[in-house]
Predict the structure of DUF2269 domain-containing protein.
Amino acid sequence: MEYYLWVKWAHILSATIMFGTGLGTAFYLFTANRSGNVQAIAVVSHWVVKADTWFTTPAVIIQPISGALMLYWAGFPLQSLWVWLSLLLYAVAGVCWLPVLWLQLKMRDMAQVAAQSHAALPERYWRYEKGWTALGFPAFGGLIVVYWLMVHKPF
């Protein structure tokens, strides 16, 4: 049982890091983009990519591993609807998050070039930014529902 509590702690901590870092970096890049300040966008996008690499990615990996261990150790039936719905929504968030990572890399690179050359951001940057923003809604919304399912285990 001692292992269960350590894994539960890791699961809760990684969920907090995953959601908190994701929401925080999204907020800062979203607001930097709204400022229109190319220098600020370049700096913020640089650190958003780093934060997702250093914090969000490990947390995304820890979540399903720790969740599977807790399900097994606690004896929850794998055929429970809340388990499958959680996995489906986690997958939806992941399907949204992977292109977001790619978009962030491209946006960071475009912002760096624009900042160094004292130029405006290209139109492609703003097309990518619209997609990046749109993908955030189903990803974060899905995770909010996953957290509710994890706490309530309704069915």
Remarks:
- The helical segments are 2-35, 38-74, 81-116, 123-152.
